Structure formats: C-alpha cells, structure tokens
Amino acid sequence: MAETEQQSGSAPEDEAAEVTAGDTFMVPKKEINMVPDMGKWKRSQAYADYMGFILTLNEGVKGKKLTCEYQVSETVEKLLDLLGTLDRWINETPPVDQPSRFGNKAYRTWYAKLDQEAEALVSAVLPVDKSAAAPEIAVYLKESVGNSTRIDYGTGHEAAFAAFLCCLCKVGALGVDDQLAIVFKVFYRYLAVMRKLQRTYRMEPAGSQGVWGLDDFQFLPFIWGSSQFVDHPTLEPRHFIDDRVLNEHHQDYMFLDCIKFINEMKTGPFAEHSNQLWNISAVPSWSKVNQGLIRMYKAECLEKFPVIQHFKFGSLLSIQPVKP
CA dihedral in degrees (151, 153, 158, 164; nearest 10)? Predict the structure, then answer.
C-alpha cells in the first residue's frame, strides 16, 4: 500500500482515474482554524496530493533548461491565454493616485474583475465533461493572486496556484506529458504576471520574514529552479551570485531569473538583503540545495499556521486523512 500512498497526488495520469463522472464537486472552504488543526492538514489527502505534485514536477524538471523542447498541449495553451487575460486587465487598470506608497487600491478593481470572471475563465480551460468542476477549481485561481483586503501577496498565494494546477491534473485536464510545460510555460508565465501585479500595485509581502526569509514573495521557483541545475557540468551554487553568470544564463534557469529579479528590485549588498539565498551559495551541490529547499518549504510554508489557515479544501484537495 505504501507505493500508492507515495503516488497519491503525484503522476497526473494516476490522478485522472481518481475523478469519475459521478463525482460531486464542492466549493472549497477553510478547515484549519486553530493551531491544533495543523495535524489534520499534515495527515490530509490534500497535503499528500499537494506535496506529491510539487515533488513530481521537481523530478520532471531535473537537469532541464527552460529553453529545452517539450510538448505544449491545448490545455496549456488555454492556461497561457487565461494568464494573458489577467495581464491585460493590469494594463486596463492603472494605479490610482493615493497618499500611501504601498498597496495601491486599483488592485481591488483588478481583483474584482477576476472574482467575477474566474469561473468562466476556468470553464474555458476544462474539458466539457468536467465543466462541473469549474466552481471548485476557480476558488484556487482567485486565491492565487494575492489578498484584496490587505493588498499583499506571499507564498500562500503561490501555493494556491500550485493547488489550482494540481486540481487540473486531478480532473484530467492536464496529463503526465504536460509536466515540463506546467513549470516552464504555465508557472513561469504566472510568475511574470505576479511580478507585474507586485510592481504595478506596490503589493506588500504577506507575512514576510524580511532578510531571514528566502524571498519576499515566492518559494517554488527556487525549488524547481535548483532542480534544473542538478548535475550541471559547470555551474555550481557559488556561481549564482556572479552577475556574468546571471546575464548569460537567466533565460535557461528559473533560479537565476529569480535572483536577477531580486537584484532589480532591491538595492545594497546581496548578502544583506537576501541573506538566506546568500547562504545557499555556500552549499556544495545543487542536489543538496534542492533537498534543503524542499525541507525549508515544508517547515517555513506548509507547516506554518499563518499560511495554512487560508488554504481551502474541497473534493479534489480533501481534508480527509490519507487512506491507510
């Protein structure tokens, strides 16, 4: 039985089998209301599925460049259209003049549009026979772009986007052949739209740990990005703080692209504004970096109540305990 447990939430083709026509979908809701509820989350099918999904993609991108060749399915194209729509709405919703520098209120106008259109956007991505899943899956899309009350964005929102993609695998809209495109096309495009949101509306980092966190806004691109470097013949962790390496290779490697973005957004010595990343540059191998980041992601994001209290559970990502 241990084998199936390991696969729960992993290979997309296994997941498609889990969701049959008779399934009833539900609008996801919060289940982790107090710190003691965290045990329920760690034992849940949702946690197993989510982690399985992250690790399957981590394995899939190992040693691969962003620019390598891979299949781009019709669903992936539709997801890129969806993200293109969100991007266009930013252009149509310029920031407003306001006394406060941070948290531009125009973000709420942009978010209201997504709130209204999310179900229709998701329906357009789903196969016709799975359209009943749109209200459930749309919740994760809405949760993935930041909080409209606080006008902030953090790793919990990023996790909601990964959950959104995981749900699309579970209903069979995305398959095992889409693995590289999920990270290199869809997630990468999502990252670009989130950066544009953060810059345009001066969004605050949600629950930022300042210089002691890995990054103000993201975590997953560092995990998958470090996996891309595993067994690289020349580039070692100590090289990513070298400007020449960044400029030459950032189009091929997500990790370097993230470092380049941090350098554009922050001033001062890298070791001061991004201490945790600076420490990573001293780790001897990329596989150790990758394993360390996965452990850190579990500890700093998935096992932190302030992040997980906002996570929502439905029929696809269930709060029910993993079946023994």
Answer: 0
d(CA 174, CA 91): 29
Collect all residues with Cβ–Cβ distance below 8 Å to 120 and sequence separation of at least 6. Answer: none
User: Does residue 166 contact residue 50 with C-beta atoms inside 8 Å?
Assistant: yes
pLDDT tens over the chain, length 324 residues: 333 333 344 444 444 445 444 579 999 999 999 999 999 999 999 999 999 999 999 999 999 999 999 999 999 999 999 999 999 999 999 999 999 999 999 999 999 999 999 999 999 999 999 999 999 999 999 999 999 999 999 999 999 999 999 999 999 999 999 999 999 999 999 999 999 999 999 999 997 666 667 899 999 999 999 999 999 999 999 999 999 999 999 999 999 999 999 999 999 999 999 999 999 999 999 999 999 999 999 999 999 999 999 999 999 999 999 988
Q: What is the dihedral of CA 284, 287, 293, 298, to 10 degrees?
A: -140
Residues 6+ apart with CB under 8 A from 204: 102, 103, 150, 151, 152, 153
Query: What is d(CA 254, CA 139) in angstroms, rounded to the nearest whole number?
Result: 27
Q: Which amino acid is at 125?
A: V
Task: State the pTM of this model.
Answer: 0.93
Q: How many CA atoms lie within 13 A of 128 on its CB side?
A: 0
* Partners of residue 312 on adjacent β-strands: 30
Give me the sign of the Cα torsion angle 204, 154, 190, 170: negative
**DSSP secondary structure code for residue 235 in this structure:** -
